[in-house]
Design a protein that fits this description.
This protein is 22% helix and 35% strand. By secondary structure, the chain is an alpha+beta fold.
Length: 376
C-alpha cells in the first residue's frame, strides 16, 4: 500500500522487491493492487488508514490460504496496469474464435425492464421510452412512484406492481415511501404501489439481485421495512444492503453496507452489522455470517464487476447475465480457475474474454457461436 501511495522508503522498497522475486507472491501483490486500490478509487471511498490495516490482515490470510488452493490462479500481471490512468490494458488474443457477426450479437447491458401492472398489462421501459400513469412515471432510465401520494388506510386494498429486469439489463425504482432499489440483470421485484399507514412495509425480491436504500421508519410512523425472498425475510428500520438470490443459485447472500438488519428464516435468525454478509444454503436452519468488504459486493451499482478469487464458473454466471449470453464449459476443471480483478461493465464482452485468455497462460480458449460462449 505504501508503494501505491508513494510513501515507501528505500528499505521498504527493497523489501518489496525481494518479496516479489518469489513468483508465488506476485498473485497476492496483484490482487491487492486491484481490490484495495482500484475498487476504492471507483467507489470514491478510499480510506488509506483502514486500507493499510486491512491489507496486512488480508495478505497474511492469503499466505495461509494459498497453500490450500488446488486450482490455478488467474492473475492479471501488475505490468498491464496503466498506473497513470489506472485502467486495464486489454490484449488481442488468438485464443478467441469468433466471426464478426457473432461478436456483434453480444451487446453491453443497458437500462431496461418490464413493468407489470395490477391488471396484468405490461409496459416496456428503457432508453427513449417515457411512461406516466397515476402516481408513477419513468423517463426510460428509472421508475419513480410519487412519494406525496397519501398512504393507504388499513381497510384499503393494496395494488401490486412487478418490475422484471431481463438478462442484459438493469433498472432503478423508487417506491412510494422513498425507498430506492437498484435491480441487477435477471431480477424481479414485487411491491405495492403505496403502503398502509403505520403497518410493515413489505416487498418481495422474487429472484435476482437488488441493492436497497430504505427510507427510515421514523418517516413512516415507525413502520418497519421487510424484504422477502426464497424462504428468507430481511427486517430493517432504515439502512442500505444488498440481496443476491438468483433462481439458478441455491444460496442467498445478504450484505449490509450501512445500518442494521435482521435476517430470518423459518429455522434461524441473525442480526448483521456493516461489512457482514449472511449466507443461506440448502439448509434453511443454518445462517452463516462472514466478514466481507461490502464495497466489493455492491460495486455493480457503480458500473463495476469486482471479483476476488472468484471461480471462473461463478464469474461467467455474472457476466452471462449482463451480456445475455449462454456459457458452456468443455472441461469441468476450467470452472475452478480463480480470477481476481475489477472490470468495467461498459467494456465489450470480447474485451473481457481477451483479458481472461491473456492471463490464463494458454490454458483457456473461447469460441463464440451466436450468443453461446464455449470455454475450452
Amino acid at each position: 500500500m505504501k508503494f501505491l501511495n508513494k510513501e515507501a522508503n528505500q528499505n521498504e522498497l527493497e523489501e518489496l522487491e525481494v518479496w516479489l522475486q518469489d513468483k508465488s507472491n506476485n498473485s497476492v501483490f496483484d490482487r491487492f493492487v486491484r481490490t484495495e486500490y482500484l475498487t476504492a478509487l471507483y467507489m470514491g471511498e478510499y480510506n488509506i488508514t483502514k486500507a493499510k490495516e486491512s491489507i496486512g490482515q488480508k495478505l497474511r490470510k492469503s499466505e495461509r490460504r494459498k497453500k490450500m488452493l488446488i486450482y490455478k490462479k488467474l492473475s492479471v500481471a501488475a505490468s498491464i496496469l496503466l498506473i497513470m490512468g489506472l485502467s486495464f490494458l486489454y490484449l488481442k488474443d488468438q485464443r478467441i474464435t469468433a466471426t464478426t457477426d457473432n461478436v456483434n450479437q453480444i451487446v453491453i447491458g443497458s437500462n431496461k425492464a418490464v413493468l407489470t401492472l395490477e391488471n396484468g398489462n405490461q409496459v416496456a421501459l428503457g432508453k427513449g421510452k417515457s411512461y406516466e400513469t397515476g402516481n408513477v412515471k419513468s423517463n426510460g432510465e428509472e421508475l419513480v412512484y410519487n412519494a406525496q401520494v397519501k398512504e393507504a388506510d388499513a381497510n384499503e386494498k393494496l395494488l401490486f406492481n412487478q418490475l422484471t429486469v431481463p438478462k442484459g439489463g438493469q433498472f432503478f425504482v423508487q417506491l412510494s415511501d422513498g425507498t430506492q432499489v437498484w435491480l441487477n440483470s435477471d431480477s424481479k421485484l414485487r411491491y405495492p404501489t403505496k403502503f398502509i399507514k403505520g403497518e410493515t412495509r413489505e416487498i418481495e425480491l422474487v429472484y435476482g439481485e437488488a441493492y436497497l436504500k430504505v427510507s427510515p421508519s421514523t418517516l413512516h410512523n415507525g413502520a418497519t421495512f421487510h424484504v422477502k425472498t426464497k424462504g428468507q425475510e430481511v427486517g430493517v428500520l432504515g439502512t442500505e444492503f444488498n440481496i443476491k438470490a438468483y433462481s439458478d443459485d441455491p444460496k442467498i447472500e445478504t450484505t449490509l453496507v450501512e445500518g442494521k438488519i435482521k435476517v430470518e428464516t423459518k429455522g434461524a435468525k441473525r442480526v448483521l452489522r456493516p461489512n457482514q454478509q449472511s449466507r443461506i444454503g440448502s439448509d434453511a436452519n443454518q445462517i452463516e455470517v462472514v466478514e466481507v468488504d461490502a464495497a466489493e459486493a455492491v460495486s455493480w451499482i457503480k458500473g463495476l464487476f469486482t471479483f476476488n478469487e472468484e471461480s471462473l464458473g461463478e464469474m461467467m454466471k455474472v457476466l452471462s447475465r449482463w451480456y445475455d449470453v449462454d456459457v458452456v464449459f468443455e472441461s469441468v476443471e476450467h470452472q475452478d480457475f480463480a480470477f481476481t480483478g475489477v472490470l468495467e461493465k461498459t467494456k465489450s464482452f470480447v474485451d473481457i474474454l481477451e483479458l481472461i485468455a491473456a492471463t490464463s497462460e494458454g490454458e483457456i480458449a473461447f469460441e463464440i457461436e451466436g450468443k453461446t460462449i464455449i470455454i475450452k
